[in-house]
Amino acid sequence: MTDVNEPSVILSFPENGVAELRLNRPLATNALSLELQTLLSKYFTELADNNEVRCILLTGGDKVFAAGGDIKGLIDADPIEIYQRHTERLWAPIEQCPKPVVAAVSGYAYGGGCELAMLADIIIAGTGASFCQPEISIGIMPGIGGTQRLVRAVGKAKAMQMALTGKPITAYDAWVGGLVSELCEDDDVYKTALANCRRIARMPPLAAEQIKEVILAGMDAPLASAMALERKANAILFASQDQREGMTAFIEKRHAEFKGK
């Protein structure tokens, strides 16, 4: 179910330095078909290499983020077919994107939709949003991060409850649990997410990429190793023109103009 002649993902550039990827299967509540996943993967690959892009906004629209996988395309699949789809390869460009990613979540973020949102670095959610890993209710389990990323985000107790019961949690509970970065009114989700992207896009992109890389790499490393990564990344930034520009602008009491060099 896809709108006739409409791509399943729409790419736009709402502001300087910001790319927007909008899931566009409204008649199927943005179910993550292979076509949609493939197009999303393609765009993330391209945007990662686009020096004009400093931040990526990922959204599903005002009513729904993404309500899971495309069940009709899975019901008759056998294990070898599922394995050979190599969904992890499609999701790799999203997971490995060096640019900061902000997800604007309104409505349902269920199953694959929740797993997709968890790949973002910042999640802005409306008060009416909800998050769920319901795969157990159809005889399977989360397969693209819904156990491993979820437990890292909300801890064992909440992850177990979500994955074993398939019960949704509210945006408020997701915020309290650490899954959501910021909670706002439903009508303000997009503009709040865009404001975050705008602010990030004005920051030095080399520093933003290093911060993202070190936080992600250090999460599962021993503290001493993670601190070593942080020290070396910080030292590397002192070789950039942006470091000189940022500090000079601070001393001169003016806005810095970062070039990503």
UniProtKB/TrEMBL annotation:
Where does the signal sequence lie? Answer: none
Keywords for this protein = Lyase
**Gene3D superfamilies under this entry?**
2-enoyl-CoA Hydratase, Chain A, domain 1, Lyase 2-enoyl-coa Hydratase, Chain A, domain 2
Residue ranges that the Swiss-Prot or TrEMBL entry lists as coiled coil: none
- What PROSITE patterns does the record tag this protein with? ENOYL_COA_HYDRATASE
Q: Which GO terms describe its molecular function?
A: hydro-lyase activity
Q: Does the keyword Lyase apply?
A: yes
Q: Which GO terms describe its biological process?
A: fatty acid beta-oxidation
Q: Which PANTHER family match?
A: ENOYL-COA HYDRATASE, MITOCHONDRIAL, ENOYL-COA HYDRATASE-RELATED
UniProt protein name: Enoyl-CoA hydratase
